[in-house]
Amino acid sequence: MPQAQEADFPSDLAGASTRHLRILCNRTYQLLDLDRPALETRERYDALVEELTRRERDAVQRGGVDDARETFRDNALFSRFELYRKGIMAGYVQYEMRGGDILLLHAVVDPKFRHLGLEPVLMQAVLLNAHRRRLGVVPCCPEALDFLAAHPQFLSLLPAQQRRRFRVLASGSAAAGQERR
After folding, report:
1. Residues 6 or more apart from 32 whose CB is under 8 A from it?
2. Helices (H), the chain
3. d(Cα 83, Cα 123) in Å, to the nearest integer?
């Protein structure tokens, strides 16, 4: 697999398509989850993120993208992750730290922003932040559970016992959904 990764990694990131860079970024992100990722994996991931960020910034400057981008931050004082749009808090996820785990307690999106579909953006930002910080994720709120059910690629962030519990809950809710039909 490492040889395939090297053959697939372009020598000039500026010449690669944005779609290809995003695919490589996702693959490299998965390689970082290995117990002992290769040293160059982190460098490649950082280079990919930097190039994608540069392209996004350039698109905003050209006016090709909505300049009312979201801003995400961890507000440790209030123990919540916050998502801002045009300088206004659009939503947040309340959390609690327990050892190396982060418990996602409650998610709120302001009704004025619900039509923009920001809840998945917020949840993804929270999970990526937890991954970057190497924290286990314990979903306690329905919004986090629903997001994880719809995006199983993030299940690796759950501690092993939580993953088993989540699969049981997910299969039970799927069965309940089938019974209602």
Report:
1. 41, 42, 45
2. 2-8, 18-32, 39-62, 118-132, 142-150, 160-180
3. 10
Tokens of 59: 């698109």
- Going along the chain from its start, the domains and CATH numbers come out as 2-62 (no CATH), 70-175 (3.40.630.30)
Amino acid, single-letter form, for residue 164 = R
Contact 54, 82 (CB under 8 A): no
Angle at 39 between CA 33 and CA 40, to 5 degrees: 100
Yes or no: say if 147 and 123 are a contact pair by the CB < 8 Å rule. Answer: yes
- In sequence order, what are the residues at sequence separation of 6 or more whose Cβ sits closer than 8 angstroms to the Cβ of residue 56? 65
**Tens of pLDDT, residues 2-61:** 444 555 778 788 888 888 888 888 888 888 777 788 888 888 888 888 888 888 777 767
Full-prediction pTM beyond 0.90? no
